[in-house]
Amino acid sequence: MTNHWADLKNADVFMVCGANPAENHPCSWKWVEEARDKRGAKLIVVDPRFTRTAAKADYFSFIRPGTDIAFFGGLINYAMEKNYIQWEYVQNYTNAPNVVDPSFSFDVKTGHFNGWDSEKKAYKKATDIWKLVYQDPNTPQRVALIEVTDMVNARGKPTGMINGDPKTCRVRTEDPLYPQTVFAKLKEHYSRYTPETIEKVCGIPKEKFIDIAEAYCGGTYKPEKSGNLMYAMGLTQHTVGVQNIRTFAMLQLLLGNTGMPGGGINALRGESNVQGSTDAGALYHILPGYLPVPDSVTLNSLDAYNAAYSKEKIGGFWVNRSKFIASLLVSYWGDYARKDLKKAFDLLPKRDGTKDYSHIPLFEDMYQGIIKGMISWGQNPPVGGPNANLESKALENLDWLVAIDLWDTELMNFWRRPGANPKEIKTKVYALPAASSIEKSGSITNSGRLAQFRWKAVEPPGEAKSDLWIVDQLAQRLKKLYEADNGAPNREAITNLFWDYERDEHGEIEVDNIALELGGFKWPTDVKGTQDFWEKARKNVLLNFTELKDDGSTACINWIYSGMWAKEDDAGLKIINEKVGLPKNQVPRNKSKWQFQYDPQNIYKDQPPLSLNPLWAYAWPINRRIIYNRCSADYNGVPWAKDKALVSWDGTKWVNNDVPDFSFRTKDPSGNFVQVPPAVSASGVDAGPFLMNIEKGNQVGQLFGNRTKEGPFPEHYEPRESPVKNLLNGAQWNPTIKSEYNSAKEQPDLYGFAEVGDPEYPYVGTTYRLTEHWQAGQMTRNLTWLGEAMPEMFVEISKELAEEKGIKKGDLVEVYSKRGKVQGIAVVTPRLPRLTLVDGNGGIKKVDIVGMVWHFGYTGLFPGGPERDKIPKISYAANQLTPHVGDANTTIPEYKAFLVNIRKVS
Amino acid sequence: MELTRRGFLKLSGAGIGTAALVSMGFNISAYAAGMELRTSTATETTTVCPYCSVGCSAIVSVIDGKPVAIEGLPDSPVNRGSLCSKGQAILQVSTSDRRLNKVRVREPNSEEWKEISWEKALDEIAELIKETRDANFKIKDDKGITVNRCDAIANLGGAALDNEELHMITKFARALGLVYIEHQARI
Ligand code: SF4
Fewer Cβ atoms within 10 Å of its own Cβ: the N or the C terminal residue of chain A? Predict the structure, then answer.
């Protein structure tokens, strides 16, 4: 989330797409209701299913799964046509006024942007083909899109204030450069996305679309209004997942909603710490803090790593990356790294720079026998993985599997899954019992980037142990094994690994040591033993990541958490001390443990107006609650919404309610802090409002971007499996995805795809979650309270489809795709539509949606069928139907739109 | 007294809503009084829900080492005391007799689980990791670039773990040279 949960109360219009917070994030819903009660906020829900969130909506429409870009593109077109543009924001804080290189083009006939190599079936390097025009290497050319005063700011860039009323401001189309601007190109690109086309592609009736567009664009483009996107996996789990989000992010820029309280792009994440685990680099492509994993091609030495993000090459805040990687290396390899950072960098594994190691290819490679062993920390792919039959089969190729969990999961029992013969499965499987959340201490990070601490309340049952204890035990053993083996490859990486932590009376690592590593400290020298080391580290805490160094003198395991550990003179400690009267030595310095608000007397009445709650736990980065908050104020630093000020310039200094997300102060030559005036902080150069944008001299929002594979502007492509031909352009599916992995190529009948408009699989399948269950089910299907409330797998279909197929409510049905089948109880409901579309081949087409929950499997108290506490004859995992195909940038699987058929089981 | 726990919050006076008012002798609502009574003999600890990412805080009441009640933490500015059906079920997660409480192994081609001690399991796993890693380790690639990686072991999962655990797991996995490191966020 760019914003956070309590901030939902500051919104004026909600757009909920591909999410169902009323059911899946229930306790967030009070904030939506509060915005509606107190601000009269409007709620728009666009979803393939009439959910409980939809039941609350002021505006609702069904949409065909996998057509979100068409819908969002339609909104962009509508906003531009109606001049519903937050002009001052667009002029100053986005690259709309930039000039696009004349080579840019889009060919509707092929569906490709310029730079497509038809032999390689891929685009050339994005930064070479999709470019902005630069006056000089540091200054992109910008024009005034509208009539502005104060044309040249302190850095000589044309920008400035709007002359007159933004609602009536006129676009300067007479400027000879206007047709080459990002704005003009964007307008041209989305001009095809008319309400009529949206109706044909998405199945949203034109009038309904216009109502929604009017409510969202018309309702939030005004500077003081905030529009809020709430989305979840319904938008991301597509072959165009990233572009889905990007399209809406672009709309948010045009309407001036990002950076505003109550605005922003808000991913409602599914798991309690999926944010923290991503932050921690538990993905193949990122180290902690979103630093890229080194690779064999470009980032293969520390010098290359640092040169790639040098001041000469990029703009923005990422020029500090060398300090972040150096501090990470020190926290990994301690003195070894301090002596020679380059050598320490070489200890890190370099992935093959031409290869994808993400979930889908991981299981493909397991299927091919490349992966021999696996350690799983609470994941359950036979239920949660796409193409679950293939992924289960792939597990058989492992020599060993270590599954750490609270429950007897499908993963650890895959060798006796329905249909398998254990005697033929060679895998050695260890099931290690883990501690639950109240049986250990540590912090987790919620969707709003808030790291909150939870304390151990009870001991784990029996022999169960925390994951921290397990990894600690393994690491200690491996260190011993490698210390005894001089000839082992790259053994220094293990023998020199810094693993010198304080331990409690049970031999568990002191979690605050790790919190301190997150906060960052000056590496202590002359230490006598472990305790002395950590005592000195606690005395040498860093304020935040601005104090990290690239010379090996600082340690920080994750720069975005730097600042989580309070320094002695931390303002927060002082405030708690003054307001609450707690002795200073009793306020924990680990900020994830903080549980204070500014005005505790008022918590039951109204919270401090914005509910930023700066003393409640710790939000990364540097306790900033709303990201891009420079954009909540105009060019002169005057907040757009007077009652919702995050940062404001009082004429001589910044008055900050939130931690500013721009360089609001800088050090003068004598080392004193001086304030950075609004003209500079809005200028878009280095100090600008979108600090993390690496475009040189252009720290603004990217309406024109070259960071995604598909092209500068998102374009609608059909899902990999679709009932219709693409109506909007000549490419059927996203041309940049890997459209077929080995499994589908080699065994198309088992793991392949249905044809476009395949008569064997005429319906669109989609999956979703329930309030009573959670993800792959281990944590809920074993509990009577939740299991009894939702005991079995079910399948939702429309009345029309049920009638056609002779299915009645309560019948047992089987849904099948090219890859598998699943049974469930039929729920015949108006919650799912029969949509009327126009096929790209011509002609009207009626399309039905088949909806399935994906929580069930084959183990646990409630496996998914009538059985209780025993392995059934079939698996109830809906993911047996989903394909191995993913987004071009992230390879997130396309769970949300695939082709199926359905029949009654007699 | 362990000051970092719930008791610490009570001590903080104005830092806490009803509980503080009770201790200061103010007139409190019946609801708040009920809350105080119900947990009066229990040790209270605050926690954060392990299910979805809203991050609701809750109070765990423990008597004789057993959790007896879970309720939303009213002071949390995230959930203001509410919990959904899953948050309420934290209690059952901890008390369920279905929880795994023994270390087990399933030998190749076997049809059943066998119990095994932690020591033995951890020793064996460490050996397996070392064996697999060393047999499949690549120091340099075909172009002579130092890559120091092992393609034969995957590390999966973590979205339900704590931050501190995760940073140690990714540190451990990368020190081993693993590159197949993935978790729920991808899918
Ligand atoms: S109580 Fe419910 S809404 Fe709150 S974090 Fe837990 S699952 Fe999410």
Answer: C
